[in-house]
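Board work, copied verbatim: DNA topoisomerase I DNA binding eukaryotic-type domain-containing protein
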Amino acid sequence: MRLSEETEEVATFYAKMLDHDYTTKEVFNNNFFKDWRKVQASSVHFYHHF
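↓ predict structure ↓
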């Protein structure tokens, strides 16, 4: 999967959080992935221009 710099940064943040208690919480995961999808959607628009 090709990621924009911003999308990769957000994914890296989540990966670093895996050892934290937050990632066991459903609300945190739902909120994170909802926000990440927004970042992905904006980067998809970016890649369609190439």
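The two ends are 16 Å apart (CA to CA).
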